[in-house]
Amino acid sequence: MKDDVTMSLFAVRGLSRARSQGKLHLGLQTFPCALGRGGRAPKAGEGDGVTPIGRWAVRQVLYRPDRGLRPQTLLPVSAIRPQMGWCDAPGDPNYNRMVAIPYPASHECLWRNDHLYDLLAVLSFNDRPRVSGRGSAIFLHLARDDFSPTQGCIAFSRRHLERLLAAMRPADRIVIE
């Protein structure tokens, strides 16, 4: 395991006047981001709209090949396909995991029409071990034009998310304070 000397920390902090707006700090650079409608807090459970405080690895990067080139990053990258989903059904054996759709339990489609998941990075929140009902599908993804709140993810402009992913190494962590 690498120690903190070889790791960069990407710190996400909120703006005091708007709990669902924040900035990610990397050295002297800052990147505006949208946070969950519940702001930053300890995650209470599935669907609470909270961006979970803590220190999270980026497990993998996913992208829509029909809407952009493969992102430049040292992180593991896979193309999103129309049959890819993410299970958000507490109690399901595949809770907080990628699934093939159609899928019988509740899930999100990763192949979306609204462009939010054209580029995304999966954070390590609630994955090892997975706790049923604690929360699922916490991603870095693309923001809406108005940077409206997410369901608990961290959302950026495409330009900024591409820059962040290009700067990340596998040992790096996203710190939500």
What would your notes on this structure say?
- The chain has 177 residues and is mainly beta.
- It has a single domain (6-176), classed as L,D-transpeptidase catalytic domain-like (Beta Barrel).
- 6% of the residues lie in helices and 37% in strands.
- It is built from 1 helix and 14 strands.
- The chain has one helix at 158-167; strands at residues 9-15, 18-26, 29-34, 40-41, 51-52, 54-63, 77-79, 84-87, 98-100, 107-109, 119-123, 139-142, 154-156, 173-176.
- Strands 1, 2, 3, 6, 7, 11, 12, 13 and 14 form a 9-stranded mixed sheet that branches. The chain has a 3-stranded antiparallel sheet with strand order 9-8-10, with no helix packed on it.
- β2 and β3 (29-34) form a beta hairpin.
- It is globular, with a radius of gyration of 15 Å.
- Residues 1-5 have low confidence and may be disordered.
